[in-house]
């Protein structure tokens, strides 16, 4: 989960989380190929997408605070998060524990990934509302400011974000030194999401163990 109320830490936090997840995964080529199948063969953006090694949901928390920001700030944040979510073939949605509808939406999305519940069909790309963009439903051409897509586009988008919202490197460094896992940060506690996260952690552990056993048998 990303804290939408702390724009000066959001990008660094996101990169740290993604890097940490990647380091914890070890997938065979077969599994990576299977993950690529999450993208429809006829999706126009398929050549420019780089699916994350595991199904990914990017949740922007504290939306109740974020929605009070200036429109231009909200637009830039939404544009950048939509872009990286689309590149990684992730689901993006904003969340507030104070909004029952958003709580239900997050629960539906996580239930889909944890228990194979029906896929969320709601799509909202309007930065004036709580964004909800399911995996594979976006288009680069519909993201404002994205004219062409290359392997360097992610760096450009990072530059766009950090230019408008300089990242507090001192806080990032101190956070990493104290505890690299935001799950242990009381500022990120959300009972519903924490419960489902624990479920996914257990499934991920079993999945990684199964992959290790398969790789050993194939040797």
UniProtKB/TrEMBL annotation:
One of the record's GO molecular function terms: dynein heavy chain binding
Keywords assigned: Cell projection, Cilium, Cilium biogenesis/degradation, Cytoplasm, Cytoskeleton, Developmental protein, Dynein, Microtubule, Motor protein
InterPro entries in alphabetical order: DYNC2LI1 (IPR040045)
Single GO cellular component term: axoneme
Primary site of residence: other
Gene Ontology biological-process entries: intraciliary retrograde transport; intraciliary transport involved in cilium assembly
Subcellular location(s) of the protein: Cell projection, Cilium; Cytoplasm, Cytoskeleton
Region (Disordered) location: 171-190
Family named by the database record: Belongs to the dynein light intermediate chain family.
Protein name: Cytoplasmic dynein 2 light intermediate chain 1
Organism in which the protein naturally occurs: Homalodisca liturata
Upper lineage: Eukaryota, Metazoa, Ecdysozoa, Arthropoda, Hexapoda
